[in-house]
Write a structure and sequence with these properties.
Arc Repressor Mutant, subunit A, 5-stranded mixed β-sheet
Amino acid sequence: MKLKVLSDNAKQAIEAEFPKYPDKRSVLLAALRIAQEEVGYVSEPAMIDVAELLELTPVQVYDVATFYTLYNLKPVGKYVIQVCKTLSCALVGAGPLIAHLQERLGIQIGGTTSDGLFSLKLVECLASCGSGPMMQINDQYYEYLTPERVDRILEDLKRDGKSNLASGPYKIPMQNSPTGDKS
């Protein structure tokens, strides 16, 4: 089968997920993640490729891709800033922080800076309720944010491609692991 945009490597990565699940349909979230990593976002042609691989209709893939905020349906910046807007973060200053980010970056929610460096999104709970306001940039968490900390994070990312203010990537604790690590 000739795919529209996904490479043979992406196809193989998706097919490698098949044994982990009871049926092909169950691979959909993983397949969308792989497609996004390959293309940079979940494009319509990528959704069609995923549908063909999983023997689904494109509409079934679209329904799932549009439900979850972790999938980008249009091109995004190098750094995707996701700010938690839920009650816990809102009570400790997420609103003013969001306004600061919009002003500092010169974009609105859902926008990308003209240099393609930053995209700004609002998301529901990022499971860090005790350390808000917080945001996730790509896979890194940044907690206990103030406008000054946000400015430093943005400058660090522009200059160095990373910031030592990151509190680490989010990890789902695994059962039976004394440290909670995935390993």
